[in-house]
Amino acid sequence: MLENGAPVVKLDEDGHPERDGTWMSASAHIITAVVGSGVLSLGWATAQLGWIFGPAALFIFAGVTWFAAKLLVACNKSPDPITGKRNYCYMDVVKANLGRFEVKLCGLAQYGNLIGATIGYTITSGISISAMVKTICVHKHGNQAKCHGSTQLYIIIFGCIELLLSQTPNFHKLSFLSILAAIMSFSYSFIGIALCIERIIGGNPVQTSLTGVIVGVDVTSQEKVWKVLEAIGNIAFAYGFSMILVEIQARQDTLKSGPSKNKVMQKATTVGVSVTTVFYVLCGTLGYAAFGNNAPGNILTEFETSKFFWLVEIANIAVVVHLLGAFQVFAQPFFQFVERKCADKWPESGFINTTHPIHIPMVGKYEVNFFPLVWRSIYVIMATLVAVILPFFNEVLGLLGAIAFWPLTVFLPVEMHLKQTNTKRFSFTWICFKTLSMICLVISLLTAAASIRGLVVSFKASKPL
Q1: pLDDT at 305
Q2: Out of 1.20.1740, 3.30.360, 2.60.40, 3.40.449, which CATH number does the structure's domain 21-335+369-461 have?
């Protein structure tokens, strides 16, 4: 529609361009957000828990995530009945419903998880590149060849690429990256499932059990407990999407406005979590069936001798391409947060707030702000350095899952729901919600402790670059 030669943009009740999304598009965003590199660890996690507790843990975390997500979706407007202001990020929701402590906890958990995710993605990419090189070496020189590349070296290479990508202006506006990431994540996930099925059909003998790795055979009783807790942390990481659920709901092109939009988003959440759970159960159980109690931490690292090695290479390439973009998706909000805070604190600083034109041959004039150039470079270097020192896939994923699970997935949605519904203290409903939150807190603390212990043990046993 045109008015005086200019297009007329329809606005929502909050003054933003009208959304045209549906529950299907919102479900697609949720599935894309949830399915990521965490899927590669589910075979290992199932091996630690066994045939009974492995699938059970996947379903339990799915149920808790779905329930808490429905509570969070209901908080997409502030309690103000007059303005009905829409919340556009998780911290806005918390700020509108709870106090300063909860807002700080949300920010700490969110940004801590963003930082941790960039480190975890750097580690995962280094492992995938190493697996690619090892596969080529095995098929070129035979199974007896010494094909053990340095994961730390490939982590550094990945970090160097991210060093350049971090300086890309308006990276958040490159919408095709989201589409590319979705294609890549589903590609390597489906390839991993297919390779596991091929290995099972091939009749490779493996040992499995109802309770997972066997005490006295595979691990000691103490190691069994720690590994089980690490596995739970890996599953929690795989389901982690609460930190961006509000952003998905509020995104202008995601969900139509209207009185039923909460119900539509709740339907999308149900569909998204259900599809993801079926997918995860397949990945976990097939990975365990294919490798048994010796299932690798990253399912794509143990197919170098497969006759479909070219498919393994494609999967690992997809992992690296996915994580090149995913690193930036998680790092950019933190970059902008720090830059915004520094600009507010030191408004007179030329180093922070002044841009300088630089002429680049064959490209043209390029505006450079030296503060982001220095700050972002330092961040990527530090993240890469931590990944080089601690290149331990399952332990890092377990720690990230533990950090984000309780505060972002359970505690904050529960507290906001209790406040919005004015639930009476010590009522049956209040006790049930508080008990759920407390149980999840204990699980998060135990999994965090197990992951930190695993990092320490793995670090002591590791070899330098």
Answers
A1: 72
A2: 1.20.1740
